[in-house]
Structure formats: structure tokens, C-alpha cells
Model the fold of this input.
Amino acid sequence: MTIQWYPGHIAKAERNLKEQLKRVDVVLEVRDARIPLTTNHPQVSEWVGNKARVLVLNRMDMISSDVMKIWQEWFEAEGQVPYFTNAKLGDGVKGVAKAAREAGRAVNQRRRDRGMLPRPVRAVVIGFPNVGKSALINRLLKRKVVESARRAGVTKQLRWVRISDEIELLDAPGVIPSRIKNEEDAIKLAICEDIGDAAYDNQRIVASLIDLLMSLEVDSNGFVSVSSLKSRYDLEASNYTGESYLHELANLLYQGDIERTARRILDDFRKGLLGQIPLELPPRASQKSKVKS
Done:
């Protein structure tokens, strides 16, 4: 499956972002809690270097508390502290704000130690498109100052906003790798709407989603169940491939309109109407943990 996702404005934004990062003190990296490994940009560590970094896993409402706990433990074992948020409603945002302030104070303390005056700390919010960066900024500011929507590519340019006397935030367009060699990762990004919908074919992505749900059920010893499909559409999935299930459901729902059916399934998944379904677990946890969806 070929997925194209590298429009010109993202390439330009990446160049501008790397230039602005030279002037930034703190990096807030936002990922999708359903696919926190897939939404880890492989170059972020290189770009960030030794700067303070706050890891935000947004869309916590889309995964269960059991899954959150597994990711929490895994990231802490890797030496990182994840902050789970639902930026749309503001859940967990206070913890992110506190972490950013603490990182900022450390930056200004180092300035004082060198005989320099403190200044507002410059922070940047980065991540893949549509992971909730602008929504997070609006919640941090407690007012809407940047455009936010449930689609990729809303933020088109870099913009500084003052969060308080202590911190200035840079809202940056989503950045994604110029190439993703792992096709499954590209499919997960499309399923979760973390790349623009012009980049992929809905029918192929939905077929892959259904196949993925069935494979996750096997690989993770029950951590996610395709029974959510039967509950939602009254059609058992285990007897079908992803593609054949899509075709059969189209016959049942929309007189064989496959595209309309694919769009509905995608929309239902993205709105959480199929349940709290993560599409990946930590490498070790996926082999040994049993989590209820």
C-alpha cells in the first residue's frame, strides 16, 4: 500500500522548526496515546539534544486506564515521565503546565548562575499532525488563541504565544518523517488521522484496521477485542478478512456502498464509538500483559 504524506508546507515547517529550536529552552513533545511509538518522530531526540523535554501522550480518553498504566510503567523504565492528557477537555493539562514551569525555572537558575538576568522561558510544542498540539496550547493558555480541529494540517506556520510572564510557547505545524519504512506504522497514522486524508485510500485503511484488530487480539492475549465491531454493527468479524468484512458490512448498511461504509468505520473508531482501543502496546507488555479494552 502506498501512502503519500509529505506535503510542501510540512517540509518547510520542518526546516523552520529546526532553526527555531536553536532558540528554545523546553520542548513539549505531543504523541497520540493510541500509538505512542508510531508517533515518535525518529529525529526529535537529535533535534532536541540536551534541552528539557516534556513527553505528552494526548487522547488519554481513547485508551483504558489499564493501558495507561502499562505505558506509564514502560516509559518510566525507559527513563521518561509521560503526561497523559485529553487536551480537548483539559484533563491532565495542569501536570504538563507544572512540568513546563519547573523546567523553565531550572533554565533561569542556570542563567542566574552565569550572572544573567532571568527571562521568559521559550518552549515549543511539537509532534505529528493532528495529535492535539494546538488544543494543548489553548488549554495551557485557558483561552483559544490558535486554531484547532480534528484533522491534520490545521497549523500551517510557526507562531509564538505568551502563556504567562514565565513562559512563551511556539505552536509549530505537525512534522512527520519524509519516509516511513514500516508500512504498519503508516497505516496506524492514517487510522488515527495523524496524517491528512488526501494521503491514503479509506477502503484499504479500514480493511487494514479490521485485520489489525484481529491480529492484536491474538498477539496480545486479549488486550483488544474485535467484539466491538459486532457490538457496533451486528456483524461478527472473526470469519472474515478485513476487506471481505468491509464489503459484507457495506451490503448490510448501505446497499453495497463500500466507500461510505469505510468512512463510517473510520469515523466511529476516531470518535471512540468502537470503544477504548489502542493500536499498540509497549514491546515487552504486548507479549505478557492482558488488558481489558
User: Anything to note?
Assistant: The radius of gyration is 20 Å. Strands lie at 26-32, 52-58, 82-85, 121-127, 159-162, 167-171. The chain has eleven helices and six strands. The chain has a mean pLDDT of 81.
